[in-house]
Amino acid sequence: MSSKQRKEQKALMVDTLNVDMNAVDHVRNSFEWIDLKESISQNKPMLGCQKCYDQDSNDSKGIDSLRVIKNNKFGHEKFSDKLDIYDNPLRSLEVSFSNKCELQCLHCNSQFSSSWFELDKELVKHGFDDRQISDTPELGIPSNFFDNADLSKLEILRINGGEPIGDPLTLPFFRKLNEQGTLKNLEEMRFLTNAMNFPDDELLGYFKKITGKVVIYIGVDGYKESYEKMRYPAKWSVLEHNLERYIDFAQKTGIRIYMNTTINSVTFRDLPNTMLWWLKKTEFLSPRNKNIVPVQVTGPEYLSLKAVPEWERDAVANRIKDIVIPQFIDGNWTQNSLDKKINKLVRFLEQPQKYNPELKNKLETFVNVINNTK
After folding, report:
1. In the chain, what are the domain boundaries?
2. How far apart are CA 129 and CA 249, in angstroms?
3. What backbone phi and psi angles, to 5 degrees, belong to 258?
4. What averages of pLDDT result for each successive group of 10 residues across the chain (374 residues)?
5. Is the domain 89-373 a CATH 2.40.128 member?
6. If we measure between CA atoms, which residue out of 366, 369, 352, 359 comes closest to residue 302?
Protein backbone atom coordinates (compact mmCIF):
# COMPACT_ATOMS: atom_id res chain seq x y z
CA MET A 1 0.00 0.00 0.00
CA SER A 2 1.36 3.42 -0.96
CA SER A 3 1.89 6.34 1.43
CA LYS A 4 -1.07 8.12 -0.21
CA GLN A 5 -3.33 5.12 0.34
CA ARG A 6 -2.24 4.91 3.96
CA LYS A 7 -3.07 8.56 4.54
CA GLU A 8 -6.46 8.13 2.87
CA GLN A 9 -7.15 5.01 4.92
CA LYS A 10 -6.23 6.77 8.16
CA ALA A 11 -8.43 9.77 7.26
CA LEU A 12 -11.33 7.43 6.47
CA MET A 13 -10.96 5.59 9.77
CA VAL A 14 -10.85 8.82 11.78
CA ASP A 15 -13.86 10.25 9.93
CA THR A 16 -15.84 7.01 10.22
CA LEU A 17 -15.32 6.75 13.96
CA ASN A 18 -15.78 10.45 14.68
CA VAL A 19 -18.67 9.67 17.02
CA ASP A 20 -19.31 9.62 20.75
CA MET A 21 -16.63 7.17 21.90
CA ASN A 22 -17.70 7.06 25.53
CA ALA A 23 -19.43 3.69 25.17
CA VAL A 24 -19.31 0.74 22.80
CA ASP A 25 -23.08 0.95 22.19
CA HIS A 26 -22.74 4.56 21.02
CA VAL A 27 -20.27 3.46 18.38
CA ARG A 28 -22.37 0.50 17.24
CA ASN A 29 -25.52 2.63 17.12
CA SER A 30 -23.98 5.52 15.19
CA PHE A 31 -25.03 6.46 11.65
CA GLU A 32 -21.36 6.29 10.61
CA TRP A 33 -20.97 2.71 11.80
CA ILE A 34 -24.21 1.54 10.21
CA ASP A 35 -23.29 3.21 6.93
CA LEU A 36 -19.94 1.42 7.03
CA LYS A 37 -21.60 -1.96 7.59
CA GLU A 38 -24.12 -1.34 4.81
CA SER A 39 -21.33 -0.45 2.39
CA ILE A 40 -19.46 -3.62 3.22
CA SER A 41 -22.62 -5.75 2.91
CA GLN A 42 -23.09 -4.29 -0.61
CA ASN A 43 -19.50 -5.20 -1.53
CA LYS A 44 -18.46 -1.58 -1.96
CA PRO A 45 -14.63 -1.32 -1.90
CA MET A 46 -13.28 0.10 1.37
CA LEU A 47 -9.76 1.44 1.83
CA GLY A 48 -9.56 -0.11 5.28
CA CYS A 49 -10.09 -3.54 3.70
CA GLN A 50 -7.29 -3.25 1.14
CA LYS A 51 -5.01 -5.72 2.89
CA CYS A 52 -7.71 -8.40 2.68
CA TYR A 53 -8.43 -7.56 -0.95
CA ASP A 54 -4.75 -8.02 -1.73
CA GLN A 55 -4.65 -11.31 0.16
CA ASP A 56 -7.74 -12.56 -1.70
CA SER A 57 -6.12 -11.84 -5.06
CA ASN A 58 -4.90 -14.53 -7.44
CA ASP A 59 -1.37 -14.22 -6.04
CA SER A 60 -2.35 -15.21 -2.50
CA LYS A 61 -1.79 -18.94 -3.13
CA GLY A 62 -4.85 -20.00 -1.16
CA ILE A 63 -4.20 -17.99 2.02
CA ASP A 64 -7.55 -16.95 3.48
CA SER A 65 -7.85 -13.33 4.58
CA LEU A 66 -9.53 -12.24 7.80
CA ARG A 67 -12.40 -10.96 5.62
CA VAL A 68 -13.02 -14.45 4.22
CA ILE A 69 -12.71 -16.09 7.64
CA LYS A 70 -15.25 -13.71 9.24
CA ASN A 71 -17.65 -13.95 6.29
CA ASN A 72 -17.59 -17.73 6.56
CA LYS A 73 -18.59 -17.38 10.21
CA PHE A 74 -21.17 -14.58 10.06
CA GLY A 75 -21.76 -13.84 6.36
CA HIS A 76 -25.01 -15.79 6.10
CA GLU A 77 -26.73 -13.53 8.63
CA LYS A 78 -28.85 -10.57 7.61
CA PHE A 79 -27.83 -7.12 8.79
CA SER A 80 -30.59 -5.09 10.42
CA ASP A 81 -30.56 -1.46 9.32
CA LYS A 82 -32.58 -0.36 12.34
CA LEU A 83 -30.93 2.02 14.79
CA ASP A 84 -31.38 -0.54 17.53
CA ILE A 85 -28.37 -2.44 18.84
CA TYR A 86 -30.64 -5.00 20.46
CA ASP A 87 -31.56 -6.27 16.99
CA ASN A 88 -27.84 -7.00 16.51
CA PRO A 89 -26.35 -8.36 19.75
CA LEU A 90 -22.60 -8.06 20.05
CA ARG A 91 -21.32 -11.49 19.11
CA SER A 92 -17.77 -10.87 17.89
CA LEU A 93 -15.45 -8.36 19.53
CA GLU A 94 -11.86 -7.40 18.84
CA VAL A 95 -10.55 -4.81 21.28
CA SER A 96 -7.37 -3.00 22.26
CA PHE A 97 -7.74 -1.32 25.64
CA SER A 98 -4.82 1.00 24.93
CA ASN A 99 -1.53 1.31 23.07
CA LYS A 100 0.50 0.99 26.27
CA CYS A 101 3.49 -1.23 25.56
CA GLU A 102 7.07 -1.31 26.74
CA LEU A 103 8.46 -2.61 23.44
CA GLN A 104 9.54 -0.85 20.26
CA CYS A 105 9.07 -3.67 17.73
CA LEU A 106 10.40 -2.54 14.35
CA HIS A 107 7.18 -3.40 12.53
CA CYS A 108 5.06 -1.37 14.97
CA ASN A 109 4.27 2.35 15.39
CA SER A 110 2.96 4.82 17.97
CA GLN A 111 -0.67 3.91 17.32
CA PHE A 112 -0.07 0.46 18.78
CA SER A 113 2.85 1.09 21.15
CA SER A 114 3.28 4.12 23.38
CA SER A 115 7.04 3.47 23.33
CA TRP A 116 7.15 4.45 19.64
CA PHE A 117 5.96 8.04 20.10
CA GLU A 118 9.33 9.82 20.20
CA LEU A 119 10.87 7.45 17.65
CA ASP A 120 8.11 8.13 15.15
CA LYS A 121 8.56 11.89 15.51
CA GLU A 122 12.29 11.48 14.85
CA LEU A 123 11.66 9.29 11.80
CA VAL A 124 9.37 11.92 10.28
CA LYS A 125 12.22 14.44 10.61
CA HIS A 126 14.31 12.07 8.47
CA GLY A 127 11.74 11.84 5.68
CA PHE A 128 9.70 8.83 6.80
CA ASP A 129 6.32 10.40 6.15
CA ASP A 130 4.57 7.01 6.23
CA ARG A 131 4.77 6.80 10.03
CA GLN A 132 1.35 6.72 11.72
CA ILE A 133 1.92 9.16 14.57
CA SER A 134 -0.68 9.48 17.29
CA ASP A 135 -1.52 12.84 18.83
CA THR A 136 -0.40 11.75 22.31
CA PRO A 137 1.94 9.01 23.55
CA GLU A 138 -0.86 7.00 25.15
CA LEU A 139 -4.12 6.14 23.42
CA GLY A 140 -7.01 4.06 24.66
CA ILE A 141 -10.70 3.63 25.23
CA PRO A 142 -12.36 5.31 28.25
CA SER A 143 -12.48 3.27 31.46
CA ASN A 144 -16.30 3.25 31.29
CA PHE A 145 -16.45 2.12 27.65
CA PHE A 146 -18.11 -1.23 28.46
CA ASP A 147 -19.95 -0.24 31.65
CA ASN A 148 -23.47 -0.53 30.20
CA ALA A 149 -22.73 -3.02 27.45
CA ASP A 150 -24.45 -6.38 27.18
CA LEU A 151 -21.62 -8.80 26.46
CA SER A 152 -23.56 -11.93 27.34
CA LYS A 153 -24.05 -12.98 23.68
CA LEU A 154 -20.37 -12.80 22.77
CA GLU A 155 -19.12 -15.83 20.89
CA ILE A 156 -15.73 -14.67 19.65
CA LEU A 157 -13.35 -12.41 21.56
CA ARG A 158 -9.90 -11.16 20.59
CA ILE A 159 -7.77 -9.06 22.94
CA ASN A 160 -5.03 -7.04 21.25
CA GLY A 161 -2.62 -4.38 22.40
CA GLY A 162 -0.55 -2.41 23.16
CA GLU A 163 0.11 -5.07 25.75
CA PRO A 164 -2.99 -6.28 27.61
CA ILE A 165 -1.15 -7.89 30.52
CA GLY A 166 -0.84 -5.13 33.09
CA ASP A 167 -3.22 -2.78 31.29
CA PRO A 168 -5.55 -1.26 33.95
CA LEU A 169 -8.66 -2.13 31.88
CA THR A 170 -7.92 -5.82 31.32
CA LEU A 171 -9.01 -7.23 34.68
CA PRO A 172 -12.18 -5.07 35.00
CA PHE A 173 -13.21 -6.22 31.52
CA PHE A 174 -12.83 -9.90 32.40
CA ARG A 175 -14.65 -9.34 35.70
CA LYS A 176 -17.58 -7.98 33.68
CA LEU A 177 -17.49 -10.99 31.36
CA ASN A 178 -17.54 -13.23 34.41
CA GLU A 179 -20.46 -11.35 36.01
CA GLN A 180 -22.55 -11.57 32.81
CA GLY A 181 -21.90 -15.28 32.40
CA THR A 182 -20.07 -14.68 29.12
CA LEU A 183 -17.01 -16.80 29.84
CA LYS A 184 -18.92 -20.10 29.84
CA ASN A 185 -20.58 -19.20 26.51
CA LEU A 186 -17.53 -18.05 24.55
CA GLU A 187 -16.71 -20.26 21.59
CA GLU A 188 -13.27 -18.73 21.19
CA MET A 189 -11.01 -16.28 23.00
CA ARG A 190 -7.74 -15.10 21.50
CA PHE A 191 -5.29 -13.14 23.64
CA LEU A 192 -2.20 -11.48 22.16
CA THR A 193 0.86 -10.81 24.33
CA ASN A 194 4.57 -10.08 24.01
CA ALA A 195 5.20 -12.45 26.96
CA MET A 196 7.46 -10.05 28.79
CA ASN A 197 5.08 -10.43 31.73
CA PHE A 198 2.93 -13.32 32.91
CA PRO A 199 -0.78 -13.08 33.88
CA ASP A 200 -1.65 -12.97 37.57
CA ASP A 201 -3.76 -15.66 39.22
CA GLU A 202 -7.03 -13.72 38.76
CA LEU A 203 -6.62 -13.41 34.99
CA LEU A 204 -5.52 -17.04 34.68
CA GLY A 205 -8.64 -17.99 36.65
CA TYR A 206 -10.85 -16.26 34.07
CA PHE A 207 -9.03 -18.05 31.26
CA LYS A 208 -9.82 -21.38 32.93
CA LYS A 209 -13.53 -20.52 33.15
CA ILE A 210 -13.84 -20.21 29.37
CA THR A 211 -15.39 -23.42 28.06
CA GLY A 212 -14.58 -22.69 24.42
CA LYS A 213 -11.21 -22.52 22.70
CA VAL A 214 -8.63 -20.32 24.43
CA VAL A 215 -5.58 -19.33 22.41
CA ILE A 216 -2.64 -17.34 23.79
CA TYR A 217 -0.70 -15.74 20.94
CA ILE A 218 2.90 -15.02 21.87
CA GLY A 219 4.74 -12.58 19.63
CA VAL A 220 8.11 -13.99 18.54
CA ASP A 221 9.99 -12.30 15.71
CA GLY A 222 13.53 -13.52 15.18
CA TYR A 223 15.79 -15.82 17.14
CA LYS A 224 17.94 -14.79 20.11
CA GLU A 225 19.97 -11.74 18.94
CA SER A 226 17.68 -10.92 16.01
CA TYR A 227 14.65 -11.23 18.31
CA GLU A 228 16.11 -8.69 20.73
CA LYS A 229 16.92 -6.39 17.81
CA MET A 230 13.44 -6.70 16.31
CA ARG A 231 11.57 -6.40 19.62
CA TYR A 232 13.80 -4.02 21.56
CA PRO A 233 14.12 -3.91 24.59
CA ALA A 234 12.67 -7.43 24.95
CA LYS A 235 14.98 -10.09 26.37
CA TRP A 236 15.20 -13.60 24.94
CA SER A 237 15.79 -15.04 28.43
CA VAL A 238 12.55 -13.48 29.72
CA LEU A 239 10.64 -14.84 26.72
CA GLU A 240 11.93 -18.35 27.35
CA HIS A 241 11.14 -18.16 31.07
CA ASN A 242 7.56 -17.00 30.58
CA LEU A 243 7.01 -19.41 27.70
CA GLU A 244 7.82 -22.28 30.06
CA ARG A 245 5.16 -20.94 32.45
CA TYR A 246 2.62 -20.73 29.63
CA ILE A 247 3.44 -24.28 28.55
CA ASP A 248 2.95 -25.52 32.11
CA PHE A 249 -0.42 -23.74 32.24
CA ALA A 250 -1.38 -25.23 28.87
CA GLN A 251 -0.53 -28.74 29.99
CA LYS A 252 -2.74 -28.34 33.06
CA THR A 253 -5.71 -26.66 31.37
CA GLY A 254 -5.69 -27.60 27.68
CA ILE A 255 -5.47 -24.01 26.43
CA ARG A 256 -3.57 -23.45 23.23
CA ILE A 257 -0.24 -21.65 22.84
CA TYR A 258 0.49 -20.20 19.40
CA MET A 259 3.57 -18.39 18.19
CA ASN A 260 2.60 -15.22 16.33
CA THR A 261 5.51 -14.39 14.04
CA THR A 262 5.83 -11.71 11.39
CA ILE A 263 7.51 -12.29 8.04
CA ASN A 264 9.59 -9.18 7.61
CA SER A 265 12.76 -8.02 5.91
CA VAL A 266 14.77 -7.89 9.17
CA THR A 267 14.28 -11.34 10.74
CA PHE A 268 13.02 -13.56 7.89
CA ARG A 269 16.40 -15.30 7.62
CA ASP A 270 15.93 -16.68 11.14
CA LEU A 271 12.47 -18.15 10.45
CA PRO A 272 13.77 -21.77 10.27
CA ASN A 273 15.67 -21.40 13.57
CA THR A 274 12.71 -19.73 15.23
CA MET A 275 10.36 -22.50 14.09
CA LEU A 276 12.67 -25.27 15.27
CA TRP A 277 13.13 -23.57 18.65
CA TRP A 278 9.37 -23.17 19.12
CA LEU A 279 8.52 -26.73 18.11
CA LYS A 280 11.21 -28.12 20.39
CA LYS A 281 10.00 -26.00 23.33
CA THR A 282 6.41 -27.12 22.83
CA GLU A 283 7.12 -30.72 21.85
CA PHE A 284 5.10 -32.23 24.72
CA LEU A 285 1.95 -30.24 23.87
CA SER A 286 -0.57 -31.98 21.64
CA PRO A 287 -0.46 -30.83 18.00
CA ARG A 288 -3.71 -28.87 18.23
CA ASN A 289 -2.52 -27.01 21.34
CA LYS A 290 0.48 -25.47 19.62
CA ASN A 291 0.85 -23.75 16.31
CA ILE A 292 2.82 -21.23 14.32
CA VAL A 293 0.84 -18.28 12.97
CA PRO A 294 2.75 -16.28 10.34
CA VAL A 295 1.71 -12.72 9.60
CA GLN A 296 3.15 -11.07 6.51
CA VAL A 297 4.32 -7.48 6.92
CA THR A 298 3.07 -5.51 3.90
CA GLY A 299 3.76 -1.99 5.10
CA PRO A 300 5.81 0.00 5.40
CA GLU A 301 7.28 -1.59 2.30
CA TYR A 302 10.90 -1.40 3.49
CA LEU A 303 9.94 -3.90 6.20
CA SER A 304 8.24 -6.20 3.68
CA LEU A 305 9.84 -8.92 1.57
CA LYS A 306 9.99 -6.49 -1.35
CA ALA A 307 13.21 -5.27 0.32
CA VAL A 308 14.70 -8.78 0.00
CA PRO A 309 16.17 -10.34 -3.20
CA GLU A 310 14.14 -13.26 -4.51
CA TRP A 311 17.04 -15.70 -4.21
CA GLU A 312 17.27 -15.02 -0.46
CA ARG A 313 13.55 -15.60 -0.01
CA ASP A 314 13.76 -18.87 -1.95
CA ALA A 315 16.73 -20.03 0.14
CA VAL A 316 14.81 -19.54 3.38
CA ALA A 317 11.69 -21.17 1.92
CA ASN A 318 13.72 -24.24 0.94
CA ARG A 319 15.20 -24.50 4.44
CA ILE A 320 11.69 -24.42 5.91
CA LYS A 321 10.49 -27.12 3.49
CA ASP A 322 13.21 -29.43 4.81
CA ILE A 323 12.14 -29.13 8.44
CA VAL A 324 11.26 -32.45 10.04
CA ILE A 325 11.13 -32.65 13.82
CA PRO A 326 10.19 -35.45 16.24
CA GLN A 327 6.80 -34.83 17.85
CA PHE A 328 5.22 -36.50 20.86
CA ILE A 329 1.70 -37.48 19.70
CA ASP A 330 -0.70 -39.70 21.64
CA GLY A 331 2.06 -41.05 23.82
CA ASN A 332 4.41 -41.91 20.97
CA TRP A 333 7.29 -40.20 19.20
CA THR A 334 6.69 -39.76 15.50
CA GLN A 335 8.26 -37.90 12.59
CA ASN A 336 5.96 -35.29 11.04
CA SER A 337 6.68 -32.89 8.21
CA LEU A 338 4.60 -30.18 9.91
CA ASP A 339 2.59 -29.69 6.74
CA LYS A 340 0.15 -27.01 7.84
CA LYS A 341 2.69 -25.27 10.03
CA ILE A 342 5.20 -24.74 7.27
CA ASN A 343 3.08 -24.46 4.14
CA LYS A 344 1.70 -21.03 4.97
CA LEU A 345 5.18 -19.69 5.69
CA VAL A 346 6.45 -21.11 2.43
CA ARG A 347 3.54 -19.64 0.47
CA PHE A 348 4.22 -16.21 1.94
CA LEU A 349 7.90 -16.44 1.00
CA GLU A 350 7.14 -17.63 -2.53
CA GLN A 351 4.48 -15.03 -3.34
CA PRO A 352 5.51 -12.95 -6.37
CA GLN A 353 7.01 -9.75 -4.97
CA LYS A 354 9.37 -7.74 -7.13
CA TYR A 355 12.60 -6.89 -5.34
CA ASN A 356 13.21 -3.16 -4.95
CA PRO A 357 16.82 -2.26 -4.01
CA GLU A 358 15.72 1.22 -2.95
CA LEU A 359 13.62 -0.33 -0.20
CA LYS A 360 16.67 -2.15 1.13
CA ASN A 361 18.52 1.17 1.34
CA LYS A 362 15.56 2.78 3.09
CA LEU A 363 15.49 -0.09 5.58
CA GLU A 364 19.13 0.55 6.46
CA THR A 365 18.39 4.25 7.00
CA PHE A 366 15.33 3.35 9.09
CA VAL A 367 17.35 1.07 11.38
CA ASN A 368 20.19 3.61 11.68
CA VAL A 369 17.81 6.42 12.72
CA ILE A 370 16.27 4.18 15.38
CA ASN A 371 19.65 3.03 16.72
CA ASN A 372 20.89 6.63 16.93
CA THR A 373 17.70 7.74 18.72
CA LYS A 374 17.61 5.07 21.44
Report:
1. 1-49, 89-373
2. 43
3. -115, 145
4. 45 42 75 76 77 70 70 60 58 92 94 92 89 81 90 94 95 97 95 98 98 96 96 98 98 95 94 92 86 86 93 91 63 53 77 88 93 84
5. no
6. 359
